[in-house]
Every structure is written in C-alpha cells, then in structure tokens.
Predict the 3D structure of the following.
Amino acid sequence: MTLLQVRDLNKSFGGVRAVDGINFDLHEGELLALIGPNGAGKSTTFNMVGGQLKASGGSIRLQGQELIGKRPRDICRMQVGRTFQIAETFASLSVVENVQMALISHHGEGFSLFGSARKRYRQQALELLDQVGMQRHAERPCSELAYGDIKRVELAMGLANDPKLLLMDEPTAGMGPEERNDLMALTKRLVVERRMAVLFTEHSMDVVFAYADRMIVLARGRLIAEGDAQTIRNHPKVQEVYFGTGKTFENELTDAQVQV
Ligand code: ADP
Ligand code: MG
C-alpha cells in the first residue's frame, strides 16, 4: 500500500534549485534509500517531508493527506518519526533517560526529569531500547557509549511516536563499515517487524545496495534513476554521477553556489 506520495516537489534557495520537480512513492514496510552526491538535494527533500522546510511547490501526501504547510509537530503527530542526534547537553543523562525524554517530548509534556518524572515512560523506553538491542546499557550515560551504540539509541528515540514512516538523514555518517552494516541490518529488521516505512539518505552506495528495498537517486535536485540495487548499479546516469570523470556534479554545484 502506498504510504507517501511525492509529486512535482520543488525547493529553491535564491537562484539554486535544490529540489527540482521530483516524484516518488514510498510503500508500507519499505526501506527506501535516497542517494546522490553531496548537494544533490537529499536533506532538502527530507526536511520538506518532515516539515522543517516549506516546499516551493508540489505535493507530499501521507495516506492522502497533504503535509506541505503543516508544522513539524503536527507531522510528528501523524506518526512520521525522525532520528535526531542526541544533543550534547543530554549526553550526561543515561540511555534510558534520553529515550524517556523523546517519549515525554512526543506526548507534549514538560521536560523535567526530577522527582516522579524520572519514572515517566520508563517502561516504554526500556521496551524501545530492547528493540534496538540496547536494554542492557539502559543505565549508562550516553557519553560513555561507542558511536555505533549512540546511533542505536537515536534510532530508539526516533521510534518514540510509533512511526508509520521514519526519516533518517545520513544515519551511518561517521561510521566504519561494520557499524554501518549493523545499523542497516537493525533498521531493516525494524522495517519488517513493525511494518514501518523508512526513508533514509546516504551518500555512499555500498551500504544501501545490501539493505534498501529500492533506491532513488538525486543529482542537482533532479531524480535521475529509481529501482532496485541491480537497476541502480547498472544505470548509465548513476554511473556518470558516481564514477564519471571530467565535469562532475559537485563541480557544477560549487559553481552554482558561488553565484548565489
Ligand atoms: P544533500 O543533502 O544531498 O547533500 P542538500 O539538500 O543539503 O543536499 O542541498 C541541496 C542544495 O541546496 C545545495 O546546493 C545546497 O547548497 C543548497 N541549500 C541547502 N540548504 C540551503 C539553505 N538553507 N540555504 C541556501 N541553500 C541551501
Ligand atoms: Mg544532506
């Protein structure tokens, strides 16, 4: 079943067409990767779906309901989740407390973790940690965790609003190959278990080939290819963007940015 329908989506920043008329669908229980070189428009697309950026034109429908014009909080209430980096200030809190914060925030409640609030949503937080394999680290401060484990906690926090659609912007940035694989395997498992759809961005292709059900490739704001790993790997336009020589997309983008 189609969950998200994106049509003729546009975003301009001054003279730069960051996203230039893209169309794609995302289905229930699907892990869809949005790939492309730096500056391709991945984060911009993402932030329009989440409501952090307002589109210049087009439509983004979640089960038929238009998301453009809605505030991020309202989109979150429609069970669109996203992973955020754990803020520096919360690194001293324990793992479970960070997940409790995400649950408290989702329920629109105050942020205090003192007194009786310390117990609020604790059980749900522990259950979410269990889903990402981090329950045994629940009482450790986040500041002590390995990088890959922090990403797991961030994933648990992204599940706080029981998302039908989870948005992950470069979830594996800064990770080594093994950690990347672990996180993608975990994400894939959650997609299957929860029947959740995931839209994630990634600039390296090797990770996504192994785990994504389908990929869409952006370059300079345009959607240049769409399909499974096999299709994308052999797609001439994709090869040009990733492996081509001469005038690269990044060079062109840099030129365009200089003019702004
Ligand atoms: P990606 O995530 O694929 O690396 P982005 O979506 O961040 O790409 O950026 C796409 C283009 O839009 C780039 O040329 C970038 O410089 C430009 N851009 C992104 N955000 C802004 C902004 N807030 N103001 C001006 N230009 C922006
Ligand atoms: Mg980006």
Remarks:
- Residues 1-79+163-260 form a domain with the Rossmann fold fold (CATH 3.40.50.300).
- Residues 47 and 53 are 5 Å apart (CA to CA).
